[in-house]
Design brief:
The complex is a heterodimer of chains A (597) and B (370). Chain A has 597 residues and is an all-alpha fold. Helices cover 70% and strands 0% of the residues of chain A. Chain A contains 27 helices and no strands. Chain A is globular and about 75 Å long. About 2% of the residues of chain A have low confidence. Chain B has two domains: 236 residues, P-loop containing nucleotide triphosphate hydrolases (Rossmann fold); 124 residues, Beta Barrel (OB fold (Dihydrolipoamide Acetyltransferase, E2P)). Chain B contains eight helices and 22 strands. The longest helix of chain B is centred in the middle third of the chain and has 18 residues. The two termini of chain B are 48 Å apart. The chains are: A mainly alpha (597), B alpha+beta (370). Chains A and B meet through helix 11 and helix 12 of A and strand 7 and helix 2 of B.
Chain lengths: 597, 370
């Protein structure tokens, strides 16, 4: 076959066209930004003119690298936040995996009570924005260090909370750990549910003790999933911004993301880009390790069994206490924060929880000049409605584009699996996951601030937000879709091809309906993530494109606590409700989106 | 002398009954198959004896020791019942090499290293998989995995071996080969085998006794040939034997002293019971069961029919014959073939003709046609 014919037959297949187009688009949207970041670490920026002596904007310089890594200031600029990040991420992993793994084991392997209730509610902390728990923590345990009013705990008990308890690494780790525990729960639970119970029974029959079965059989088999959970939680915790910003700032506890926000927004964007680059490098290292682990020869993916045979472990006398404990615990983690936002948003003078201090001012008040510069209550505030509208249309657009692209990507990647092109697109579509959100935002800011080829300058436009969101959340959608496509045998599509049914019809009438719930999960996850996203957009929004989360952050920075709480309540309710509705209507769910089964 | 006794064993999952009031005695060194269509409770029964599932009611004894009693609250855990279990999907531990998979049970028995090594290689040799000892299960073919699973189960030398459809994941040729080896294994190991299968051929060829279950209820428990020749009811007659038994609807009438006149339209036959004498009321609706090998194509047969289809396999030919709209299945041994539509004459031979009551579907007599 000559080259023209070969090309013709290549281009005839839709999945080839998809792969080639995705390869081009994603290269431009992920690799180019990456190169831009690298160049930015060697470039003099406007804000740095004063420091880099005698330089022009755009000049090549080693100043940033030298300053960040090898100067007397490096400790404060980089090493300390770096170590803090590592400590926080490790601590988060520890809490998330031990808690999530334990609950997963209880739910899949024992006769715990209220399983349905627990497994539904346990995912809530992950659905809620990560700072939800952080704000709740502050509402409860705030002390007089930051000025203003004390939290609920101090108000009711009169005991002043210690600084280490109220702010800094301890609450950050606890809050992030609780936030990511559902993530670990979903992944480990999926493996446990899929893991053949016969494997454990075989060991039992060969007279191994329960402890030995756990140590020698269950844990080693779940290990790859645990490690990959560990790595995913680690990289997520590493790029978390809002929680350390809320809880760390009062005691000047800096992590890489908060440091990046300060430097990118301040006088040293070059520092910020270096930090971003290092974080991306760590992320890639993690991805590499993860792929090594998953691909090892001990892989057990080929083995599936009748999981219906599972004989549940009897918890005996622990059954009721453990069940009750988790019901109460999860209740506290899910409901108490929401209650606290509600309370805080109705209180006139912060810190005073008496009944006559209640007000609806911050919800429906017309605004009074003595409070918060006359800002009207959020339900009468056109700015809030604009923010809500922006948030919704942004999330819907991002979900639509990311979800659809993800389906196409998953389809094409699986169709051409094991080819170079497919592996390349697969990696590219996952790559944005590793980019810390804020760095990603920063790069898009610098990339699209000017006209690029046929693309007009996008800064300040809504399109830019949609673009950055779509690329950032593509990994969720593509992973969900790849998983779904792997479960679908090729013959199902071929049966339709033979009958002469066109590609569009095959996609819409056969493939999509069969894996509907997985695909819709691929839309749901970007939607929810986008609705609660802060750090990705914080550098990109302008007053006309403000979204709810950035407004929340601004209100919080200004210390307008009640507004912040009210908006937060709005976001949480909106996210949780839309999740529940989509779940009820379509069967799609968060767990399917992040790889649970 | 390990003898396994099940007394009134019942297992309910919620409202559905998986096993219904089952009584069973399995003697030492027997090769018992639990046979039945899928969902008949055979795997559940096996798992209950092994201790992996808890019966709702009843008692189980292994080797005169009560290992389970619902009334007395006894439930000895599987590891203390001294049994081996071979799973349908092998359940090999994916993170351990073949060697580790086999030695795991021996380590649990605190054997010293050298003895373990010797025993593992003895087993590897016996099952002809020595060269794979360092491989992981995912690097083995289905048949090899199967052998590793058998070696692992045998390693601790259990006196009772349970097998849950161990051959169902293998291809036909390999299955045949493994059947032979399982039978040899049974002879060599002196153990009692309890084997679950839905494949009647496997049950027929392997076992010393078949326990046939249907919807959790025991249908018949006896030797393979007895089940084949003297099935207790229509279900058993139909389930065992391939090709299926021919069932002819007839109307009966007791004649002479101990004979039954059977009529099906134009066809009239005389049935002589060889079991015990029976009485049939006049006009009683009956079913006449004739195994395919008992329908013979001969020149002087009393019935005329046309060849409907023919399936020659070289060793034998399965022929369907159309006799006035009734289809009979016959097996002709040897490499013979027929033409479709060809006229042939057939006759029924031999004993082992079964007579069942049509309404109760119960076997009332075996005998011969004259």
């Amino acid at each position: 076959m000559n080259y023209t014919n070969r090309f013709k037959s290549f281009i005839k297949k839709p999945h080839n066209i998809i792969l080639v187009s995705l390869a081009c688009i994603l290269t431009y949207l992920t690799i180019v930004p990456m190169i831009t970041i690298i160049m930015d670490t060697f470039t003099v920026h406007q804000a740095e003119l004063m420091r880099v002596k005698g330089a022009q904007v755009g000049d090549f310089t080693l100043y940033h690298w030298a300053k960040v890594l090898f100067s007397s200031a490096s400790r404060k600029i980089f090493y300390e936040p770096f170590l803090n990040t590592m400590a926080v991420s490790l601590g988060t992993c520890f809490i998330a995996i031990s808690l999530g793994g334990f609950v997963a084991w209880l739910v899949t392997r024992t006769n715990l009570r209220f399983k349905g209730f627990l497994s539904t509610l346990f995912i809530f902390p992950y659905i809620m924005p990560s700072w939800t728990l952080a704000m709740a923590w502050l509402n409860f345990f705030k002390n007089s260090l930051v000025g203003g009013s004390p939290g609920l705990f101090t108000a009711f008990t009169g005991i002043e909370t210690a600084n280490w308890f109220a702010y800094g690494p301890f609450p950050i780790v606890v809050v992030l750990g609780l936030h990511y525990a559902p993530f670990a729960y979903i992944l480990i639970g999926g493996i446990l549910r899929n893991m053949d119970a016969n494997l454990e029974e075989a060991a039992l029959l060969l007279k191994a003790s329960r402890a030995k079965i756990m140590r020698k059989i269950t844990i080693p088999i779940v290990m790859p999933a645990m490690l990959s959970t560990f790595l995913l939680v680690f990289s997520s915790a590493m790029s978390a911004f809002a929680v350390p910003a809320f809880l760390g700032t009062p005691v000047r506890y800096q992590v890489l993301t908060t440091q990046m926000f300060r430097t990118l927004n301040g006088l040293n964007p070059g520092y910020g880009y270096i930090i971003a680059l290092i974080m991306i490098a760590i992320g890639m290292l993690i991805l590499g390790i993860n792929q090594k682990l998953v691909g090892s020869r001990k892989s057990f993916t080929t083995i599936t069994g009748k999981s219906s045979n599972i004989a549940l472990i009897n918890l005996h006398s622990l059954r009721t206490p453990l069940s009750l404990f988790f019901v109460i615990f999860i209740g506290i983690v899910c409901i108490v924060p929401i209650a606290s936002f509600t309370i805080e948003s109705f209180i006139k003078e912060p810190g005073n929880y008496s009944l006559n201090n209640l007000t609806t001012l911050f919800w429906v008040g017309a605004g009074s000049p003595v409070i918060a510069n006359g800002e009207p209550g959020i339900l009468r505030n056109p700015a809030v409605f604009r923010g809500l509208w922006n948030s919704i249309r942004l999330s819907v657009s991002v979900a639509f584009f990311a979800g659809s692209l993800g389906i196409l990507a998953g389809y094409a990647i699986v169709k051409k699996k094991n080819t170079k092109l497919s592996v390349y697109v697969n990696n590219l579509s996952f790559f944005p996951y590793l980019m810390p959100s804020m760095a990603f935002g920063a790069v898009y800011l610098s990339m699209f601030a000017v006209k690029r080829g046929f693309i007009p300058p996008l800064y300040g436009s809504f399109v830019l937000l949609v673009l950055v969101g779509t690329v950032k959340y593509l990994p969720f959608a593509s992973r969900a879709s790849i998983g779904a496509m792997y479960q679908l045998s090729n013959e199902i599509e071929e049966a339709a091809t033979i009958q002469g049914i066109g590609w569009w019809k095959r996609m819409l009438k056969i493939i999509f309906p069969i894996q509907k719930s997985s695909f819709i999960s691929g839309y749901l996850l970007p939607f929810i993530s986008c609705m609660r996203e802060l750090s990705l957009f914080i550098l990109l929004v302008t007053p006309s494109t403000r979204i709810l989360t950035t407004m929340l952050f601004q209100y919080n920075e200004k210390g307008w606590n009640q507004y912040a709480n009210a908006i937060n309540l709005l976001i949480v309710l909106f996210v949780v409700l839309s999740n529940v509705i989509v779940n009820r209507l379509t069967g799609a769910s968060i767990d399917k989106g992040i790889g649970g089964q | 002398m390990p003898q396994i006794i099940l007394k009134n064993i019942t297992k309910r999952f919620g409202k559905s009954v998986a096993v219904d009031n089952l009584d069973l005695v399995i003697d030492d060194r027997e090769f018992i198959t639990l046979l039945g269509p899928s969902g008949c409770g055979k795997t559940t029964t096996l798992r209950m004896i092994a201790g992996l599932e808890t019966p709702t009611e009843g008692d189980i004894y292994i080797d005169d020791i009560c290992v389970f009693s619902a009334d007395r609250g006894i439930d000895i855990s599987p590891d203390k019942r001294n049994v081996g279990f071979l799973f349908q999907n092998y359940a090999l531990w994916p993170h351990m090499t073949v060697y580790k998979n086999i030695s795991f049970g021996l380590e649990n028995m605190k054997w010293d290293k050298e003895r373990i090594h010797k025993r593992v290689f003895e087993l590897l040799e016996m099952l002809r998989i020595e060269e794979y000892s360092d491989r992981y299960p995912s690097e083995l073919s289905g048949g090899q995995q199967q052998r590793v699973a058998i070696a692992r189960t045998l390693s601790t030398g259990p006196k009772v071996l349970f097998m849950d459809e161990p051959l169902s994941n293998l291809d036909a040729k390999l299955r045949m080969e493994m059947r032979t080896e399982l039978k040899r294994l049974h002879a060599e190991t002196d153990s009692t085998f309890v084997y679950v299968t839905h494949d009647q051929l496997e049950a027929m060829t392997l076992s010393t006794k078949i326990c046939l279950l249907r919807k959790g209820v025991l249908q018949q428990y006896t030797t393979p040939l007895e089940i084949y020749h003297n099935p207790t009811n229509l279900f058993v007659a139909d389930f065992v034997g391939s090709p299926n038994i021919n069932m002819l609807e007839v109307v009966g009438e007791s004649v002479n002293l101990d004979e039954v006149k059977l009529t099906h339209g134009q066809i009239k036959m005389l049935f002589v019971p060889t079991s015990s004498s029976i009485t049939v009321t006049k006009g009683q609706k009956l079913l006449l069961g004739i195994r395919p090998e008992n329908i013979v194509i001969t020149k002087d047969g009393p019935l005329t029919g046309k060849i409907y289809s023919t399936l020659p396999s070289g060793m034998e030919t399965i022929v369907k014959i159309d006799v006035n709209g009734l289809l009979f299945t016959s097996v002709v041994f040897g490499g013979v073939d027929f033409f479709m539509g060809e006229q042939v004459r057939i006759s029924f031979t031999s004993e082992y003709i079964i007579l069942l009551d049509k309404t109760t579907e119960i076997n009332i007599a075996t005998g011969k046609l004259v």
